Amino acid sequence: MKRTTKGRLALLCTAALFSGAAVPTWAQEAPPASTPGTGLEEIIVTAQKRAENLQDTPLAVSAITRNVLEARRIMDIADISGSVPNLTTTITPSSTTNVAIHIRGIGEADPVLTIDAPVGVYVDGVVIGRSAGAVFDLVDLERVEVLRGPQGTLYGRNTTGGAVNLITARPADTFKASQTFSYGRFNYFQSRTTVDTGELGDSGLRFKLSYLHKQRNGYANDLNAPAKRDPGAYNVDAFRIAANYDKGGPIRIDYAFDYNDSNSSSVPFQLMAVRADIAAYLALSPQLGGSTAQISRKRLKTLSLDQGPNRDEIMGHTLKIELDLADTLTLRSLTGYRKWNNRVAQTDLDGNSGLVGFQVSPAILAPPNAFIPLGVRPFNLFSAQNKRHQDQVSQEFNLIGKIGTTADFVLGAFYFKENARENNPQQLSLVLPSPVPIPLGPGIVTNSFGVALSPALTYSHHSESKALFGQATIHVTDRFDITGGLRYTEDKKKLNQTAPVAQIRQLKASFSQVNYAVSADYKLTRDIMAYARVATGYKAGGFNPRSVGGSFDPEKIISYEGGVKTELFDRRLRFNLTGFHSRYKDLQVSQFLAGSGGASSLTVNAGKASYTGVEMDVLARPVRGLTINGAFGYVDRKFKSFIIRDPATNALIDVSDEARFHYSASTTANAGVQYDFPEMAIGKLMARLDYTYRGRIWFHPLDRLNPFNSVITDGPVGRFDARVALSEIDLGRSKATVALWGKNITNRDYLYSAIDFGSLGFAGGVFAEPRTYGIDVRFDF
């Protein structure tokens, strides 16, 4: 296997790290709370800003534990799709790090840096301000908590759909270390190293050091690039340093620094459909000395692209300080700083390179519409470069306490400040009809001509948010609790827009909102709890710099939810069921409208919508060694009103009867079965099989504005993943685990995302990864 310089560096760093780790004893990781044969382990979550049992939390929350993360080989936020009911995650074009997250049909796919996503993403409680750049490796992930439905009281604005909290592992009390090497299809290689120092003497200090290197060739063959630059290829280095201070006194301090350096090639975009006149124009390219256009709705294994490398640099600091003011009163400070730099050398959003065609000067588009022939030239239907930056600082204070045995409460204050900027020059070609046939050579005649344009998107954006909030739970009886919460939020936003406007434009807007949540839960028995909840949410308004319009208003939601959480048969069956009905007002909808001005879009407060659905989570251990899990989610979505301006008449019309909910499926499901064989002399053998399903996805809301919308829609689709692992292999002073894994083992073809370029007359999309497989070897010391 040929390794890059970074790959060799990873091995050298790993060897040096272990050669210098001289310690007197070697400790193993503590076993889980219960073994696979004795029932389900208790899961502790922090969804309500305090540690509590998952089954005692009166929320629709799912937790993916460390064991499940390992068993399903979930590496980052893009991998959790299908693990939670009514959750979908999708990689968007021109990137490997931009993700669209939808919960209960609510999400945002536009990666522009001024539009907030309605699903909040948090790392150890610190909000990630942008979904662009959110796919980064967390070297030591402990668990993932997914809160479904509006979380406006404790988590604040931009959680109308829900929240995803990525929780990393804290430093351990005793020394331990692990080293994992992986190899797989597409020349995939990974080295993952983790070292816990344990408590240093009697200082109360503990450290955890983690390092990751991974690299892979692309999963589609680009004839114009080496394998390491094929679409979907990456080369990533990431590390994390975590420190903990806890001497058992009134103060506890946790600090972490994470850094991620990713060099990658955008996922493979291919042309799927074109307008008839454009198809005729493209057909002349080989006769004029250019390449033949590739157009296919089916996955193309080989492409001819003209795209450059991507670079993402992500870093963050997190500082948490907890001070016990009394036995039942704690003050918590959570400080976060994060920064993201992104550079895209060249995107290829027409799925082709080497195309040529007859072109005329852009002067034809403006009076006096001069027809100035430029001859046969290379052209792009659409390509772009991009340079983006985002940095943020956040500060949150929590006062967490109890009032005797009758009440628990959380009081808080929150501050968030963000700066972002983007410089996005674009290149595109309009194909226009010619009033008369144009001869181009012997037997070659064109009825169209191309006009090459170079629009740009350039802006900077500043946002600031402040909030005060509180929540209290009253224990009315030993079985009956009532919880109420309130939050007041103020938001300020400012946009400096340089292009596509004719002159620099400055826009400002302010918003404020009060949100509340009220819930009641009752324990019918020790193992069965029923709850009901009413909650509101608010997504801040703002600006869309792709358009020349003004601001859009906040969207608001009220959600009614009821559920049952159960643990039955001596904790061998966990069954949770939730039903919900949500109503949106001023729902924000981003509509992609590419044209002569480039990749433009319009964000509007389309109107009203309702979401009614059901969610189910099942986890069972019916017999020793056998674990079965399942999840199902369905949401019935309806637009009550969807107001647009008719481009033909300029009149406002309601198109709610034809509008679609995009980038999310109405139905999601997953099922998994794992069997842990009786322990053998050589070690412990485990086998696991998972099935994930999602229903049909549409990528644009209106066919009338995106004529190929019905061509590029995708699904339904189901995929199988599998893993077999032999662990606890005794090597003397260490133990080893060997695992074989496969993802999408039946090699199903399905789309990550797709774009209909509307009036530009073509559409294309990105297929997800085909079958992948590999081997992991881990050593625990």
Key attributes of the depicted protein:
disordered N terminus, mainly beta, 42 strands, single chain, 4% helix, 56% strand, Maltoporin, Chain A, 5-stranded mixed beta sheet, 781 residues
Give an overview of the whole structure.
With 781 residues, this protein is mostly beta strands. It has a single domain (44-780), classed as TonB-dependent receptor, beta-barrel domain (Maltoporin, Chain A, Beta Barrel). Helices cover 4% and strands 56% of the residues. It is built from four helices and 42 strands. The protein has a 22-stranded antiparallel barrel. A five-stranded mixed sheet has the order 3-9-10-7-8. β40 and β41 form a beta hairpin. The chain is globular and about 90 Å long. Residues 1-37 have low confidence and may be disordered.
Task: Give a concise summary.
The chain is mostly beta strands. Helix content is 4%, strand content 56%.
Write down the domain tally. 1
For the secondary structure, the number of strands is: 42
Task: Please state the second-level CATH architecture.
Answer: Beta Barrel
* CATH homologous group name: TonB-dependent receptor, beta-barrel domain
> What is the third-level CATH name, the topology?
Maltoporin, Chain A
Describe the protein's topology.
Layout: H1 5-19, E1 44-45, E2 52-53, E3 61-64, H2 66-71, E4 87-91, E5 99-103, E6 106-107, E7 119-123, E8 126-128, E9 141-148, E10 162-168, E11 176-184, E12 188-196, E13 205-216, E14 221-222, E15 234-246, E16 251-264, E17 269-274, H3 276-283, E18 302-303, E19 310-326, E20 329-348, E21 356-360, E22 373-378, E23 382-403, E24 407-441, E25 444-453, E26 456-475, E27 480-499, E28 505-525, E29 528-539, E30 555-568, E31 573-592, E32 601-620, E33 626-639, E34 643-645, E35 652-654, E36 667-676, E37 684-694, H4 709-712, E38 717-730, E39 735-743, E40 751-756, E41 762-767, E42 772-780
Parallel strand pairs: 7-10, 14-18, 21-25
Antiparallel strand pairs: 1-2, 3-9, 4-5, 5-6, 7-8, 9-10, 11-12, 11-42, 12-13, 13-15, 15-16, 16-19, 17-41, 19-20, 20-23, 21-22, 23-24, 24-25, 24-26, 26-27, 27-28, 28-29, 29-30, 30-31, 31-32, 32-33, 33-36, 34-35, 36-37, 37-38, 38-39, 39-42, 40-41
